[in-house]
Amino acid sequence: MRIAFKLAYRNLIGAGLRTWLNVLVLSFSFVIIIWAKGVLVGWDHQAKTDMAQWEIAQGQYWHKLYDPYDFFTIADSHAPVPEAFQAAIDQQAMVPILVAQGTIYPEGRMMPILIKGIKSDQTLLKIPAYKLDTISDAIPVVIGANMSKACHLKKGDRTILRWRDSQGTFDAAEIEVVEVFSTLVPSVDAAQVWIDLKTLQEKLNMPDEATLFSFGALEHQPAEQGDFLLKTTKDLTSEIDDMIATKSKGQAVFYGILLLLAMLAIFDTQILSIFRRQKEIGTYVALGYTRREVVGLFTVEGAMHAVLAAGLAAAYGIPFFIWQSKVGFTIPMDTSEFGMAISPTMYPVYSVGLILSTTLIVLITTTVVSYWPSRRIAKMNPTEALRGKIQ
Amino acid sequence: MKQIINIMVAFLLVVPSMAQPTANDLLKKIDQNLSSKNRVFESEMTIHGKRASRTVVSKTYSVGDKQAFTEYLSPAREQGTKMLKLENQLWIYSPSTDRTIQISGHMLRQSVMGSDLSYEDMMDDRKLTEIYDGQVLRTETLDDRTCYVVELIANVSDVAYHKRLMWVDAERFVPLKEELYAKSGQLLKQTVMSEVLKIQGRWFPTKMVYKDMLKQGDGTEFKVLNASFDQDIPDYLFTKAALKQ
Predict the structure, then answer these.
(1) Which of A57, A243, B14, B188 is the most exposed, having the fewest neighbouring CB atoms within 10 Å of its CB?
(2) Contact assessment for residue A178 and residue A59, using Cβ atoms and an 8 Å cutoff
(3) Whether residues A64 and A202 fall in one domain
């Protein structure tokens, strides 16, 4: 087998430009596949990290009626804070959030929004709730940058907020934007204002009630606590997983086309080799090689394209990967209204698993493609092969 | 001297109460004007949007405050849409989908055909005297008509508007203007009623302009094209089956 590798290497190098063209095309496939997969992994990583920091921490408890995609459920999704949660809330390991529907009227335009009440002393989430302590004759609110852009409200601006209390009675008051925060998580930004939890509870006539809880490190996480149901990080980030899975499938087609082009070149090279090297094949057999060994030799020769391609890809790919992981890949479009935590600049993350799996896939594919035409050797008549007769 | 003062005090206390009716009296008189066994009216609702206005024509049959059947006659897009209100339930039939859906719960808070009115505004059929405590604040002149300004404060908690101010025509006992306030005292909505006509012996405002006071725009104009009271309305009209006919 060692001889097979030696021979294969010598033959490949001997083929000169033909080999290097194949290797170059294959190395492109390597680099592009690893980079594109790295971007997806990086996006997944960034989206989940941002969601954890801004919204879900290490999990949430939702009121059993709460469905963020069905606004009709919001008015009924509230219940008193369970006693079992109180200790965690006091220790800042849990943040109660009360959600209500409301309407704001910036510049006389009517905008339906969500009003979210959060404790001003919370430190679990990155929402700058401490700003809600600002002294103002209006209700202090904090909003996200996208919300600020959508409703043309800047820090210091005021508008009227209208809501209905637990009995359905309209109430309205002036609000003042005391902070505009920048986040990549649209579910804490788009069409919503954050106000002090106590103030919202008073205004809605829902003392000590909440719609959901975000929690950090909790020792005990029952599946259900009173009216609240546990939502694990996996449940809460399933949308991102689904999105990544869809994107991966889309990318797989692209990888397929790339690999197909590279494999086509290798396939052609193999066919050409077998056609042009019939005398060589005959000589191998005459020297005592079995047909399987000759097939193996040609297969190794083809598969070695992948090894050389991996080496070449590493030579120019590694600096490219390192540079990309530093500067990131900026999506050439506005991602703020995608409804998902997508950063405009994605930083690829390359894992050992990703590199190994890609290398393995390319190596196996190249081996199969190299073996495919080599099977013809097994059917060759060695004496006719020695004479160089086309079979 | 003491007797004269007593008479003067008594005069000051009694005369205003004789001259100025109580809020309850006024609401009852308004009820007499506006309520009937049943009524049929054709109306035109003009919704003034930011860029353009659109007009929806409908015909409504109602019995008391509990039953109402409305059919939209134009524009073509809304033609054939029907709405049935029975007690506190509301159904809408859409001819394009040939489906009847019940508007319930929070869907009642949605706007009717994009107007400043919500389904809920149409559904609240409790008498004002049952859910509000009223008092006459003053008299004012509005469009050359002397009006009593009546303040109504909710005495139950499940009302949409905590406070209402109503300008009631002192002679014809129809409201000419109404303002609806939030619990905080913020003015939310205003309705201006005009073109008061005498129809079958009762005064009836035939034009109403509803306006969300927090929103830009000219509001929604509601014009009664013709109205008749105490008619023979067949009972089958107030059934779900009538929606598909």
Answers:
(1) B14
(2) no
(3) yes
